[in-house]
Specification:
199 residues; alpha/beta; 5-stranded mixed β-sheet; 8 helices; 5 strands
Length: 199
Amino acid sequence: MHANPRDRQLAAQTALAELNRQPIFLDTETTGLKDADEIIEIGVIDYHGVTLYESLVRTARTISPGALRAHNISTAVLRGAPTWAEVWPQVKPLLEGKRVGIYNARFDLGMIQNSHRAHKLAWAAQDCDAFCIMELYAQFYGEQQGGYRSYRWQSLDAAGRQCGIKLPNAHRAVADAQLARAVLLHMAAAAKPTQPSLL
């Protein structure tokens, strides 16, 4: 499975380097997986795994059946929750100046942009200095696909099982941020000390 030990070790070293920056971790649950879907729950935890922010998010968009089966967050559950326009001003200061670890960063950042767009909020790339734990883990796990050094993405649930992590993939924002953090810790623990150059 680990076809390239060098790439695995590079991923472990990168994970350790990211961990040394003391990142925070973010996860979202959404109305679905399409380009127009929006966030209905967001969770942010700190470097130590302590919850910094957690909130449901009310939206007018319909929740897809597949998403509902995954996270069990219904429209009824969202009644009384704040809107994204109310949530973002509380989340943004937590992200400023921080490195942010996200499992499938492209997806979550896209959903943040979608939610911004729905509420006519301006989005700037510097609002979230993110790195993708999923892409890093794909290199670490090493299941090859396609061409040379092309690695298959693993779901968060699969990554947790493969790493022997006892936290469940609960499909709730804070719980999944905790699992993503644990995956990064697992990779970082596999990093070997770098050897000083003799040149």
